[in-house]
Design goal:
Blueprint (H helix, E strand, L loop, with lengths): L2 H19 L4 H18 L14 E4 L5 H10 L40 H15 L5 E6 L6 H13 L4 E7 L2 E2 L2 E2 H4 L5 H7 L3 E6 L3 H8 L7 E6 L22 H11 L4
Parallel strand pairs: 1-2, 2-3, 3-7, 6-7
Antiparallel strand pairs: 4-5
Helix pairs in contact: 1-2, 1-3, 1-9, 2-3, 2-8, 4-5
Length: about 270
């Protein structure tokens, strides 16, 4: 399965899963779907039969509210059965509203409180360097999440240490809960800020799989940040670029329309 097909099927599954559970963050799930699809199809080294394989690349979804997209990606990658997604957010389910390392194979660190994933990822990258290991660390943050100061402490440290084994992908959909990022606490010029902290910076279309693949491949001497310009709710016309779909649950009629537009209607 190529990354585009994986992304298409992931969006359909996310819509069904969130509808079935009656909760979730479909807008942010859809903006990050293409990023996850390319990472898990073409970039990351991992072994679902051995989730703790020492030589695996480490992946951290710092924007843990996009858990359903991650869970679907992990299931499609062979970490657990797709049927497990039916239990999302149910009592005693391993698939909580936010990813938990102790419960879900393939999850490197528990996330949900924003601003934690990048500092943890920086620690992973430092650990690999100290131990002389060749695996890489990839972190995905939301853009609104970058209003957390902990991210900038981590960015400053990573730049100082020239952590070339670290890649940060910013899901730059320009929306957060209730409003636009630039209305809440402006982030731009985001590229210049990371450059000033000693990072290599790339800006791309976060839904273009070729651009994603090209940006994520290869080596770099400094930590790399990919500012992936995305659309919240990508793939479903009535959800796109609307803050209300941060955590709104679609009606059955909306699910049917969304699946039709995605191309996964059965």
């Amino acid at each position: 399965m190529d990354s585009r097909e994986r992304a298409r099927l992931t969006r359909g599954q996310v819509l069904r899963t969130i509808s079935g559970a009656g909760l979730g963050h479909v807008g942010g799930d859809f903006s990050v779907t293409d990023i996850l699809a390319v990472l898990f199809t073409d970039v990351l080294r991992f072994d679902p039969a051995n989730p703790n394989w020492p030589e695996r690349d480490r992946f951290v979804l710092s924007k843990g509210h996009a858990a359903v997209s991650l869970y679907t990606t992990l299931a499609m990658s062979g970490y657990f059965e797709l049927e497990e997604l039916d239990s999302f957010a149910a009592e005693q389910s391993m698939l909580n509203g936010h990813p938990a390392r102790a419960k879900v194979p393939g999850v490197e660190t528990s996330t949900g409180p924003l601003g934690h994933g990048l500092p943890v990822g920086v620690g992973m990258a430092v650990g690999a360097r100290i131990r002389g290991e060749q695996w890489k660390t990839f972190v995905v943050t939301g853009d609104g999440e970058l209003q957390e100061g902990s991210n900038w402490e981590a960015a400053m440290f990573a730049g100082h240490r020239e952590l070339g084994n670290l890649t940060l992908i910013v899901d730059r959909n320009r929306l957060q809960q209730g409003a636009r990022t630039e209305e809440t606490n402006a982030l731009d010029p985001l590229d210049e800020k990371f450059d000033a902290f000693g990072w290599e910076v790339k800006q791309i279309d976060g839904h273009d799989h070729d651009e994603l693949r090209s940006a994520l491949m290869g080596t770099h001497a400094k930590p790399l940040v990919i500012i992936a310009n995305t659309t919240k709710g990508r793939g479903v016309s009535f959800m796109e670029d609307l803050a209300v779909w941060h955590h709104k649950v679609p009606s059955q009629e909306q699910v049917d329309q969304g699946l039709e537009e995605i191309g996964t209607h059965s």
